[in-house]
Amino acid sequence: MNIDAPKITDELLGALPRRAKEVLERRFGIGKARERKTLESIGTSYGITRERVRQIEAYGLKKLRSNELIEKHKPSFDELKAELIKRGGISEEDSFLTALARSPEDKNYFRFLLTLAGNFKKIKEDNEFKHRWTADERLAEACHQTLRLMHKDLENKDPLGEKELKTKLALTAKGILGQDVTEEMTSSWISVSKKMGQNKLGEWGLVDSPHISPRGVRDLAYLIMKRHGSPMHFSEVAMAIRKNMSEKAHVQTVHNELIKDGRFVLVGRGLYALKEWGYEPGTVRDIIFNILNSQGPLPKDKLIEKVLKERHVKLATVQINLQNKKFFKVLEDGRVSAI
Question: At which of 123, 147, 162 does a domain end?
Fold first, then answer.
């Protein structure tokens, strides 16, 4: 954007009395002020009440809004509005200011210009959404409705890839608005949500989900294995956590956590799988017994095939277990049965 926010701001503030100018500078962290100050701190420095500071601030903004300089800079304010409309009429404050600013210092100047202009509205942070700016209340409400539906849809669900999330959000938004939305709009709307977040694997979901905000090594291991899609040795899990999640993960700690967590099943020598993949805990003998108990007598080769799908062990290990006559017997037709 071709907007020199500091230059416009300095010109506008030059039309104010000294006290009003100083208060606005300190409130917004612009001009001679380096940081944004509270009403309380400004009042203390002047020896006046915070309410009096608020009145001076309101006076300064009102005076500037009626100044002819506002009309002079109307093209810049129109450009700001067009940029916000392009983003779906609403955007999270920090990400919007960052996109506008040429430097970190410029963000406060753009915040001041947005506050000064009459066609922008700042909506304060709440339990669902972050601080945000809007230039179209209809689009803002559509954004809120869309995100609420997305929040509900993501409850108790596996995380989504960014492309899948944006596709779902766009379809939901179209149902509410009755029109297509661009990818830039979906990105801006997503930034508004306080409830949705992204994990270190680039997946999206609710921020209070262990898939998105892992709580310790167990959750990190679950994410890694879920993404891998097949059994992993505990040392591989530890290595993947360090490499892909940039988190500390000692091999023995990972092994201990996998043993204690019911989401994981030991399926071989140091090899773990997720229980949700259909694996059941137990020894090889337990697995054989469970298969025969649920499916009835089976030919030996079919039984061994099924066991090896459940456990990554040597063929000899299965055969030795089948020889245990306390638990298994061979029928006259050659099939194996549980006793």
Answer: 123
